[in-house]
Amino acid sequence: MATRHLIIGGGTAGMNAMRAIREEEGERSEITLVSAEKPYSRMVLPYYLDRSIAESHWTLDQCRNLIAQTKAGSHVVMVGAGFISFTILNSILALGAKLTIVEIAPRILPRMIDATGADLTARWLKQHGVDVRAGVQLTKIEDARGRKRLSFKTGPDILADVVIMATGIKTNLDWLKGSGITINRGVVVDSHLRTNEPNVYAAGDIAEGLDRISGHSEIHAIEPTAQEHGRVVGSNMAGRDVSYHGSVLMNIVEVCHLDIASFGAWDDAKAEAVSGLKPDRPAYRKLLFTGNRLTGAIILGPSKDIWTTNDVGMLKGLVQSGVSLARFKDHLRRNPFDVKPVFIASNTTSALLPETVLGRPSKAPAGTPVAV
Q1: Which distant-in-sequence residues (6+ apart) come within 8 Å of 346 by Cβ?
Q2: Which of 283, 272, 195, 186 lies closest to 233 in space, CA to CA?
Q3: Which residues of 32-63 are buried (b: 16+ CB within 10 A; e: fewer)?
Q4: From CA 226, how far away is CA 312, in angstroms rounded?
């Protein structure tokens, strides 16, 4: 009898688990997928919203409804100014809508960048016609003659044609109560992403796995972690013995041609912080050191500046590799924007090149030119 696998959830982690099973198994197994929708990556939703991908491969009723409601000149209010709302911000503007963002926290992107970065981003958005109201508490949404009225604890009401709730995710754990699986903030997993039940694994937003920087167990509800988790889980389900090196918290988003990114422990109050600011560009760097390691970073700058694009990848590599920067800290203290020579001289590329998720070269899925 063929080995039987059950995958619950058709997002990035589930898709990559199924793909890895097929790549690694010796004999063809039986895979059953349980999902509310056909499998797809929810990170493509912004591209569907701005109509830069076709509909034929997706069953995205909420996106279709949103496109139908969002007309040129309509007023859209997004509740929440975190990563999720910023991934769809460009798409809403591309539909010709007027956009207002409201956020309960004192600043926008509170779980991604610090106050300096948030202030630069808010000013950039204002220059591009986006109204930002931070530090406000929404108390009520009610119908108002075919529109929506949003009321707040303080400040004036807002009338909107469309309201988008983008207040983050909540891990769905209720269905596991009484299952015997150990749950903390998420499903607790070991170095192989196994739960306390030997044949049950967890991956993606639900898994409380290893944070590569801190060494602690964390939930990283981000696409790269879901992809890596899925591939490790699928390989282990197929009979391999693959341990996971841990994920790096990262968020990268572009809004109105401004690149914003953070990596690792970007908000560690105990770390040594070095920063540089060029408000006229605008451009911002913040580097956080624990000893001689770069353990966190924030970068912000115009997309058209090639050094912004380059530095995003190099800062991520410096954080992920954990190479010693003892020889270069004084240089970075004086020149926090001068990352490239440090990246090259520290041999970060040599440290990262041998590293793969599954301990082997990547394979391209059948029929596609892309290796994963």
Answers
A1: 318, 323, 324, 325, 327, 328
A2: 195
A3: ebeeeeeebbeeebbebbeeeeeeeebebeeb
A4: 20
Domains and CATH numbers, the chain: 4-40+179-237 (3.50.50.60), 69-165 (3.50.50.60), 257-352 (3.30.390.30)
Length of the chain measured in residues? 372
Terminal C-alpha separation, the chain = 30
Contact call for residues 196 and 182 (beta carbons, < 8 A): yes
Mean pLDDT score across all residues of the chain: 89
CA distances for 319 relative to 209, 266, 315, 341, angstroms: 18, 10, 6, 15
Mind listing the pLDDT tens digit for each residue in 214-245? Answer: 999 999 989 899 999 999 999 999 999 999 99
Residue 226 CB contacts under 8 Å (≥ 6 apart), including other chains: 11, 12, 13, 16, 203, 204, 205
